[in-house]
């Protein structure tokens, strides 16, 4: 699909003023284009540094091709930029090292993250990649809340994690696949050890 | 036919590498050849023989004679007398075996048999044959040389033959014959100096193209080997697949050219970096294959993100997460425990652990408590309780403000 034919998704029409504010254009890996305000971009440390380094003027933004974000799809990027537009101008939280982290999930964020686990996974991953601290906070809190009141067995199903036994079996299988002779040598060594020998020689 | 006949030549070449050089340097005496092997072992003999070599052929390429500046006349005379005795004793034994080299083209089977016999000689025979040389060696083996250690008894037998040939080779043809067997080893060392060896090399390369490479010294093989070169490139951080780039950048390109480039780059600080950043953004592909499946696992998340999720769970939840999987347990144990106070209460039928006012009750039977409390009902509830307590106290990042231990054995919960 060409860039010209790509659908243009307006993140927040109401938030777009007619003033001098500059709107950067970003393109997802499925060729969806987004216009994001400079203030909203500041929520993302990665994108903020990128546009600072590029030094685009307002003309450059219009004339030059959109900045491609190759590893995030349009659906996820739309959620990310929606969140950024909603929280633009807010202070970026700094980690003070305190535990446990107390995070409140705002209503807007709760609605935004009312999505399936696959998309939530992508949202967390995109927030981590674009280094959007507050979005990462709330999305991780959302995942942590998913574990509330569940037993370890239920959590294994939710998070698709293997049990200790399955983990051991997988590790053993991987080792054997890597070196099939290793187990034979180990058994031979154990046998010799049982017989009283200290070494193979 | 030729291959079978070449075997002894190869072995000779392998064994008599340095001998050949010595012979070239001093064709009259067999000492230098022997010295070539034990050059480092016996300094005195080496000096004497090298002196002879220098006096006869000043332009010899062998490095051994360089030590001849110090001469010990007495030793030299002794050595010469011994060498003469060797010359008289050895020829009968070695000539038959060694002549096989030059006669290869005529009758290879005989040569093979002779050479093989020579090689297969029992140690006793060798001792008998080499008795004069052995005497020399006994004197020479006061110090043990690495080269002599590396060479097998066969080499000694063959080197005697080579010595004899060197002594015997008054005519250039005979010396050529002798060299024929010795070429492979000596050729790499003497190529630039002696034209004779060039001829010999041609003969050798025609008949045995692969053997000389195997007989080359290890020191010379390594730098030439392209695999080693690639390995060095990789070690130096360069791409082994593009050695040309290395040449262009590091060797061919003059420094002035590099300097001329730098101001250009400085003139366009925005354009060039922008493209690089864009390409980097495109190259940083962190998507996982599992994301395509639609049901990503928590283990597909970056470790930092999983740590963030754990940090946003309360401590009771972290204790549950520890029991989900091994990797999660390891991760939870690395993080700072989210509790500042612990109260341990041991009752007759249950154990209560309170982490920052969060109750966890361990017992055989399920107790009905507040909904936010965790009840662990197991037969080995003591073990479960102490495991949780130990895992908390074991964490080096734990900073407790309050720890209280209560033993109320008489109290029973109903």
Automatic annotation (TrEMBL), chain A:
Gene3D superfamilies: Potassium Channel Kv1.1, Chain A. Residues 134-178 form the SKP1 component dimerisation domain. Residues 26-88 form the SKP1 component POZ domain. Residues 166-201 are annotated as: Disordered. This is Skp1-related protein. The keyword Iron-sulfur does not apply. PANTHER family: SKP1. Pfam families: Skp1 (PF01466), Skp1_POZ (PF03931). It comes from Caenorhabditis brenneri. GO terms for biological process: protein ubiquitination; ubiquitin-dependent protein catabolic process. SUPFAM superfamilies: POZ domain, Skp1 dimerisation domain-like. Belongs to the SKP1 family. Residues 169-194 have a biased composition (Basic and acidic residues). Keywords: Ubl conjugation pathway. Probable essential component of SCF (SKP1-CUL1-F-box protein) E3 ubiquitin-protein ligase complexes, which mediate the ubiquitination and subsequent proteasomal degradation of target proteins. Regulates cell proliferation during embryonic and larval development. Pathway: Protein modification; protein ubiquitination.
Automatic annotation (TrEMBL), chain B:
Residues 72-89, 118-128, 196-213, 254-270 have a biased composition (Basic and acidic residues). Residues 1-275 are annotated as: Disordered. Pfam families: F-box (PF00646). InterPro entries: F-box_dom. Residues 301-341 form the F-box domain. It comes from the Eukaryota. CDD domains: F-box_CeFBXA-like (cd22150). Residues 107-117 have a biased composition (Acidic residues). Signal peptide: none annotated. This is F-box domain-containing protein. It comes from Caenorhabditis brenneri (Nematode worm).
């Amino acid at each position: 699909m060409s860039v010209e034919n790509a659908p243009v998704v307006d993140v927040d029409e109401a938030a777009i003023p007619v003033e001098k504010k500059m709107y950067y254009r970003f393109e997802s890996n499925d060729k969806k284009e987004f216009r994001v305000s400079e203030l909203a971009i500041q929520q993302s440390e990665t994108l903020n540094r990128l546009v600072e380094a590029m030094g685009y003027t307002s003309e450059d933004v219009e004339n030059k091709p959109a900045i491609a974000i190759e590893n995030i799809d349009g659906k996820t990027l739309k959620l990310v930029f929606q969140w950024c537009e909603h929280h633009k101008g807010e202070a970026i939280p700094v980690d003070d090292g305190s535990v446990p982290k107390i995070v409140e999930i705002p209503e807007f964020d709760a609605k935004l993250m009312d999505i399936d686990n696959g998309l939530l996974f992508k949202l967390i991953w995109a927030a981590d990649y674009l280094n959007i601290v507050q979005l990462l906070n709330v999305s991780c809190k959302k995942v942590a809340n998913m574990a509330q009141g569940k037993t370890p067995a239920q959590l294994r199903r939710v998070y698709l994690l293997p049990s200790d036994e399955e983990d051991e079996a997988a590790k053993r299988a991987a080792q054997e696949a890597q070196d099939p002779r290793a187990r034979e040598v180990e058994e031979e060594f154990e046998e010799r050890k049982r017989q009283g020998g200290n070494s193979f020689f | 036919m030729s291959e079978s006949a070449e075997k002894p030549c190869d072995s000779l070449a392998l064994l008599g590498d340095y001998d050949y050089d010595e012979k070239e340097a001093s064709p009259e005496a067999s000492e230098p050849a022997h010295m070539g092997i034990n050059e480092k072992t016996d300094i005195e003999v080496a000096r004497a023989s090298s002196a002879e070599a220098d006096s006869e052929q000043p332009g010899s390429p062998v490095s051994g004679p360089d030590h001849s500046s110090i001469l010990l006349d007495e030793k030299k005379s002794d050595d010469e007398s011994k060498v003469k005795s060797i010359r008289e004793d050895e020829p009968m034994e070695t000539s038959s075996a060694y002549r096989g080299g030059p006669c290869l083209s005529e009758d290879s089977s005989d040569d093979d048999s002779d050479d093989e016999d020579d090689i297969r000689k029992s140690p006793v025979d060798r001792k008998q044959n080499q008795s004069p040389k052995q005497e020399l060696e006994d004197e020479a083996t006061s110090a043990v040389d690495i080269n002599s250690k590396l060479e097998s008894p066969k080499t000694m037998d063959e080197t005697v033959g080579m010595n004899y040939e060197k002594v015997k080779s008054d005519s250039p043809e005979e010396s050529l014959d002798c060299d024929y067997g010795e070429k492979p080893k000596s050729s790499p060392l003497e190529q630039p100096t002696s034209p004779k060896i060039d001829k010999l090399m041609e003969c050798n390369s025609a008949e045995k193209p692969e053997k000389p490479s195997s007989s080359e010294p290890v020191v010379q093989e390594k730098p030439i080997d392209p695999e080693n070169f690639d390995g060095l490139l990789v070690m130096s951080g360069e791409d082994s697949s593009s050695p040309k780039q290395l040449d262009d950048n590091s060797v061919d390109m003059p420094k002035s050219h590099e300097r001329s480039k730098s101001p250009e780059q400085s003139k366009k600080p925005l354009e060039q970096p922008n493209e690089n950043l864009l390409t980097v953004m495109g190259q940083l592909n962190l998507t996982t294959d599992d994301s395509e499946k639609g049901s990503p696992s928590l283990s597909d998340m970056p470790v930092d993100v999983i740590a963030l999720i754990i940090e946003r769970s309360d401590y009771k939840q972290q204790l549950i997460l520890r029991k989900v999987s091994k990797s999660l347990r390891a991760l939870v144990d690395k993080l700072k425990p989210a509790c500042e106070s612990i109260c341990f209460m041991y009752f007759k039928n249950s154990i209560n652990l309170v982490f920052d006012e969060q109750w966890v009750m361990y017992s055989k039977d399920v107790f009905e408590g507040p909904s936010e409390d965790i009840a662990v009902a197991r037969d080995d509830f003591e073990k479960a309780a102490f495991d949780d307590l130990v895992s908390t106290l074991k964490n080096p990042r734990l900073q407790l403000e309050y720890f209280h231990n209560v033993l109320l054995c008489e109290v029973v919960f109903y």
